[in-house]
Amino acid sequence: MKLLKTCLAAAIACSLFYSVPTNTKQETVFEDEQIPCMQTTGQTILEDTFMKPDTLQQIVEPTCKNTLILCTDASGMLYDSIFIIAHNRQNKTVKVISLPRDLYVPYGEEITKQLEMLNLSREKGIYKLNVAGFIGKKMQYPATVFEDGDISFIADVLKEMTGVAICEYAVVNFQTFEKLVDTVGGITLQIPCDIRNAKGELILPEGTRKLSGKEALLYARTRKFYDADGNMLPSGGDFTRKEHQLAMMREIIPQLMQNAGVTKLPGIVQIVRKEVRHSFSIGDFYRYYKLIQEVAAGTVSFETHSITGPEIRPTDDGCLYIEFK
Description:
This protein is 35% helix and 19% strand. With 325 residues, the protein is an alpha+beta fold. It has one domain (48-322): 3-Layer(aba) Sandwich (Aminopeptidase), CATH 3.40.630. The strands form five sheets. A six-stranded mixed sheet has the order 11-4-1-2-3-12. It has a two-stranded antiparallel ribbon with strand order 5-8. A two-stranded antiparallel sheet has the order 6-7. The protein is globular. The model is unreliable at 1-36 (pLDDT under 50).
């Protein structure tokens, strides 16, 4: 069976050699050697007084290969979820870091002037991290390693804010997420409490449930809770949603290998190839498949981290932001 899995994965990788698009300017090698991460444009993005916390650098080692995962909202313009997946081959670890979408980005004078020229400087929530791609696109930000200026901009923002360099990226929308979950046959999760809508109607009952793609998306996006009468209950808001998403990631890897295995791999790859914006090469597809196998087998450790911070009001736009600490 192990030989079958290896041969099938290799065959899939070879069959995609001429068909998988890549959005990176550098050629990614097939072997498991260190792949250089992106280089910034040299443009100063943040204000001079910004003091970079070492929060992420304490989690992400310098030798990690870091992949940025962005999930767009229904409009496709904002990032509903922002993750960094850090893989350290030397230490045999994979760490998934969830960043608040409301993280305050203290842009410096150069970027602020461009926002003013674009009549965006007074837009509500314009300084949130989840708007960075929209800003990069509007500014026609120059591409670095990535051929997409909007991705290059948020990668440069993250590098300057956190000290973590982005090596690869993928952008997934809601519909594609649902397709991926359905393709692997659904995902079984422990729902900690009844989930109801604002009318008090039960949507997902408490307990261990096998979720379809639509149900998994609903759970992944839930941040408000209601009782049977439609009264809102206390919750952690966006941080509760992040915990749902991280729990889903922890559960889906072993289920992916058990339920889907190699038989569903071609369908997964085709969905990613056609519907996900990414910078992956042929070698990356095969390498990520091997990595999932290793995590599922327990030979590579898997950790999840959620970055939090205090709520602040740094502008007069009426929005609450999260301060990066």
